[in-house]
Amino acid sequence: MKHVIAVGFALAFGLAVSGNARAEPVVYKLYAVTDGKLGSQTISRAQVTITFRGDTRNVVRETVPDAVVYRIDQGEATVTLIRSGSKTVAHVADGQIYVRYDTTNGVVGFGSFATGTTYPITLICDPLSNEDCTMVRQRPYTGLPFNQLVSALANIKATGDASSYSAGVNALPTNLTDSTLLTGVVSACAVAYNSSNSTNTCPLPPVTPIHTDLGDFYLQDQVFGSDGIFTVVVGKDEDAEEK
Q: Is the pTM of this model over 0.85?
C-alpha cells in the first residue's frame, strides 16, 4: 500500500515543460534507500540523496551506440545521508560525478569518471517493459522500505517544489533542461549483478571510491528493487544551506 501512495504522489506532481533555452540554474536530485559507506559511517537501508547543482547551458546531447544521452558534468555535488533522525551532508570533490540521462533505455542518474556511467546510482524508469522515461506510471515492484521516499515526496510538496511539476504525465521532458519528477527502481552497484544470486545483491564495492570532504563514499546495494525518485528543478537554487 505504501508503494501505491508513493507512486500516487508522483502522478499527482507530474511535470513541467518550460521550453526555456536560456541558461538557468538547475538542481538534480536522486532520492533512494540503499547501502554503502560514507567515511566511517556505514549506510544500511538509509535515505541517501545525491544532489548536483549546475547550469542548463552545460547540458550536452550525445549519441552513443543505440542510445541518445543527455549529460552535464560541470557543477557542484553533495551527498546527504539521513538515518535515525540524523542528517549528514558531504561535499563531493570536483570532477568525481556527473548527471546522465539515457533517454533510449530509460536510465537516469549519476555516473562517475572513475567507475562508469551507471555508478554511483541510477534510476531505471521501467525495466520490465524496457520503455523510456516518458511516463510516470504505477509499477509492480515491491522493494522496501518506502517510508523514507514518501517522506521525501512530502518534503518536495512542503517546500513548494511541487509547483515546478504541472499536469501531463504523457510528455515528460527528456533533456535535463526542464523541471521533472520521475520514479523508478534504483541500482547502486559498480559491477554487474550476479543473476544466479537469489538475493540479487551487489557483489562488490567499486575499486575507486568517490571522494568527499567527509571521507570516501561508495554505494553497494544489499537489496535490488527499491524505489527511487529523480527530480530536476530549473530556475532556482534550492537547499542553499547544503552547499
A: no
Domain span including residue 230: 2-242
Per-residue pLDDT of the chain (243 residues; tens, 9 = 90+): 222 223 323 323 333 333 345 689 999 999 998 999 999 988 888 889 999 999 999 999 988 888 889 999 999 999 999 887 789 999 999 999 999 998 888 889 999 999 999 999 998 875 444 444 543 333 433 333 444 454 555 555 545 454 444 333 334 566 888 888 787 888 899 987 766 655 678 888 899 999 999 999 999 988 777 778 888 888 865 555 455
Please name the residue that has the C-alpha cell 510516470: 136
All three cell numbers of 155: 518534503
* CA–CA separation, 184 and 188 (whole Å): 13
DSSP string, the chain: -HHHHHHHHHHHH-B------S--EEEEEEEEEEEEEETTEEEEEEEEEEEEEEEGGG-EEEEETTEEEEEE--SEEEEEEEETTEEEEEEBPTTSEEEEEETTTTEEEEEETTTEEEEEEEEES-TTTT--SS---------S--HHHHHHHHHHHHTTGGGG-BS-TT----SSSS-EEEEEEEE--SS---TT-TT-------SSPEEETTEEEEE--SSTT-EEEEEEEES----GGG-
The domain tally of the chain equals 1
Q: 74 with 174: CB under 8 angstroms?
A: no
Q: Which three cell numbers stand for residue 103?
A: 533517454
